[in-house]
Amino acid sequence: MSPEERRTHDPKKAPNPRMKSTHNGEVRITSLIVDELAKALRKILKLDGPADVLMSLYFKNARHLGPRERTIIAEAIYYTMRHLSMITWRMAPVCPAKAPKLTGLLTLALQYGIDSIPDSTLGREKEPLKNMLRPKNSEAPKEIQAEVPKWLYDKAVVQYTDHKALFEAMQQSAPLDLRVNTLKATPDEVIEELTQHGVQAEKGQYSPECVRLNIKPALTQWPIYKEGKVDVQDEGSQLIARLVQPKRGEMVCDFCAGAGGKTLALGALMKSTGRIYAFDVNEKRLAGLTPRMRRAGLSNIHPAVIRNEHDLRVKRLYGKMDRVLVDAPCSGTGTYRRNPDLKWRFGEEELDRINEIQKSVIRSAAKMLKAGGRLVYATCSILQRENQDVINDFLAENPDFRLLNSYEILGKQGIEISPYQAQRFGDFFAMLPQLNGTDGFFGAVLEKVKPESKRKAPKAEEDKASDVPAIEQKEEGQPETGAPAEAVQADKPSEEAKEEVTEQAKA
Ligand SMILES: C[S@@+](CC[C@H](N)C(=O)[O-])C[C@H]1O[C@@H](n2cnc3c(N)ncnc32)[C@H](O)[C@@H]1O
Fold first, then answer.
1. Ligand 1 center–CA 328 separation, angstroms
2. CATH at residue 213
3. Are residues 55 and 197 in the same domain?
4. What is the mean pLDDT of the chain?
5. pLDDT at residue 495, as a whole number
6. What is the ipTM of this complex?
7. At what angle do helices 84-91 and 126-133 cross, to 10 degrees?
8. How many domains is the chain built from?
């Protein structure tokens, strides 16, 4: 760990598991590390709760561990989750959940080599472990190499010609993306402040508000965070707010606001004017929004818990909104870089259930729009079924809506995405880890056609009048840019725990 990283990392807390490995292969694995890793895996491999929550709980009760041990254990846990298919294949017929110590040893041997583990620690496991390490990864079936469940593998292979690159990108850890709150700071000021603390940061490639870090400092302890100058949000997620493109003084509804990642971005784009209704069915999750909006200095957000998409609060607002964002509950398949355990915790049966919710939520949310208003449907799923299929069904049922070109909308704000994506995904917005280095996000921008303008060419008038600042003040006459994609978002497994996982992913 460099002096800079040490300065930004709080060793009393659970180590940030996504930080870059700093061991350069020179790791000495002690029996304490192996035993403690086994203890943590015994709980986490049950897959009955989000790995990061279970890991934090474990570290809270492991005060005897020093920062070095904590970091090695945290990295090993994340490695296990990212490579659980391959680990299971190597251990067969032994099941990892039933043999956490062996799983821990195999993980550490895969990470650092078997020679980093002393014989005294390996004990009787040495020979079985050597046998497990013998096969090459390339000998494993393709879906094992892909490190996704079989149901997802089958769907992704059909949907993506570049599925190999997609699977590889989904196995990597993600960088830390910050969204700069432009009411309080500029990206340049944030980068300067981070640099002064020895943290390397650079501007994002697409979002004008994005600053990207390749290490994960304990940011929440920093003034820059406490003062509301930044919040944590994947660059792809930041662009969803740009698709909504709210203007000052408008009436906006963030229908599935969760803890408000996108609500805050919308509030800042509106310069804290107008009114944003932040709805969600999950009271606990929505409660997270209030401190965040205070920190951000936003006074235009009104959080409200709803019972479901047919709640009276929703019905009262029918026909009143200029913009509605449906950041739908989804499978979270676009966020596996950040939540690798989610892939083993979300099953195909959940997809059916969530898909019904997605269709019902968009139907109800659409009724809140004024004529001429804009509906953005978004997910962090890579699956067509949760994305394009939902929109195509909706458009078939609702001829008074038309699909706008996402890339043109972004282009008019100075946000250029490769024309290749427009060719590939048409009007749909898609960000993918293998193409864009972001999580997988999907977006569709729909306009509720004014009665007299039905069937006219889809020229988005409000784009011209928008108050949303374009990159470097570019507003009109932007170069033609990108186009949509195939990515998707996910959410709402039945139990709270599954929801938590997806929520973290999307935020
Ligand atoms: C993907 S998350 C939202 C993430 C959030 N927009 C953000 O950017 O941080 C989806 C949210 O939809 C909520 N949800 C699920 N069913 C819903 C419904 N019927 N109506 C409104 N919200 C719902 C979930 O509780 C969850 O918070």
1. 6
2. 3.30.70
3. no
4. 87
5. 36
6. 0.99
7. 120
8. 3
> Does one domain contain both 190 and 271?
no
Nearest atom within ligand 1 for CA of residue 379: 1
Strands 251-254 and 321-327: parallel
Which residues contact ligand 1 via a Cβ below 6 A?
A: 255-262, 279-282, 285, 306, 308-309, 327, 329, 357, 361, 491-492, 499, 503, 506-507
User: What pLDDT score does 26 carry?
Assistant: 72
Tokens of 339: 């939540």
Residue 243 Cα, ligand 1 centroid: separation in angstroms?
18
Predicted model pTM: 0.85
Judge if 217 and 256 occupy the same domain. Answer: no
Question: Which residue, judged by its Cα, is nearest atom 15 of ligand 1?
Answer: 329
State the Cα–Cα distance between residues 370 and 250, nearest whole angstrom: 11
* Closest residue CA from atom 17 of ligand 1: 281
Residues in the chain with pLDDT values less than 70: 1-25, 453-507
User: How far is CA 47 from each of CA 7, 43, 104, 347, 491, rounded to the nearest angstrom?
Assistant: 33, 8, 16, 12, 17
- 95 a catalytic residue: no
Per-residue model confidence (pLDDT) at position 456: 47
The pLDDT of residue 453 is 59
Strand, helix or coil for residue 496:
helix
Nearest ligand 1 atom to the CA of 285 is 27
Structure tokens at 501: 């996982």
Same domain, 243 and 385: yes
pLDDT tens digits, 239-250:
999 999 999 999
Judgement on whether residues 382 and 418 belong to the same structural domain of the protein? yes
206 shares a domain with 311: no
Q: Which residues span the domain enclosing 211? A: 177-227
Query: C-alpha 498: how far from its chain's center?
Result: 14
- Encoded amino acid at 53, one letter: V
Quote the pLDDT of residue 343: 95
Cβ contact 483:407 at 8 Å: yes
- The reply to whether 327 sits in an annotated binding site is yes
Of these residues, 210, 253, 256, 380, which one is catalytic?
A: 380
pLDDT score, position 497: 37
Does one domain contain both 216 and 245?
A: no
Tell whether 333 and 369 lie within a shared domain. yes
Atom number, ligand 1, closest to the C-alpha of residue 308: 19
